[in-house]
Specification:
The protein is mainly alpha-helical. The chain has 13 helices and 5 strands. The protein has one domain. The strands form 2 sheets. A 3-stranded antiparallel β-sheet has the order 2-3-4. A two-stranded parallel sheet has the order 1-5. 34% of the residues are buried.
Amino acid sequence: MARNLRSSKKNEIEASSSQPRMVFDYEKYIHEDCLDDFRRLCLNRNVCNQNVVDLKVLETVLGSGSITNLLKTQKLTKFVSLNHEYNKDLVKVFNSGLHGKTSHSFKFKIGGKVYKFSMKFWEPLFGLKHGNNRVKYNENNTQLPNYNRDTYFSGLCKNGRMPQGYMKVGALKMENRVLHWIISHVLRPKYGSFARVDNPEADLMYFLKNKIKIDWPHFIIDRLFEIKDGGKLSVFSYCSMIGAILDHFKIGANDEIPLEAPGKRQVLSTQTMGSLK
């Protein structure tokens, strides 16, 4: 996509004061087969801002042998630090055209064409591995030997006890709160309820902390289609990944498209980690 506008407040002010705001005709990218689905299921859906992990800050605050090592074991360092620019309207268009799902590939219709994102692209673009030696995690069917979610979560807490009511983020030890932030903001992004640890988030913490390798392409594809089919209350995410995929296929390369990138509030920085103590 051709670069145009950034999402910082400074640039927004400069753009509004010095020139008319650019009108982006995103509808021309909607495939004719997907027009009804886009208007009915995607147009009014929210889109999560992309969040990013600053790996240098992570190592400085927690040390190089903690969460950074867990991310390296999973081959996630490139993915969690991805800050590719994106356009939220094109994120919706991309989701409206999703189809043809397999374990490690999918197709999408956009701009009058059909594209296939196959398994060979995951590692060069995002550093993500797949294979038979990795667990294909299904959050609706978690069956792990000797794993009890409540007992495990209790061990992650400051006082070693499960809080009453539900799994609370505030009860976690500092390092575990940071890991939960990475999961809930980047690996499995959600739109709200950040005070609560959802069941799949606790499961992913178990996998990461025990260095059980996950088939992340399989997981992300499942999430993409689950979100698309989840109705109007589901929120689109993985914006930087989608932006990188569109750029890989040179979609919008000849157009001026208003783009945004993660701002300071979307980065796991020293300030963010300080608020998690």
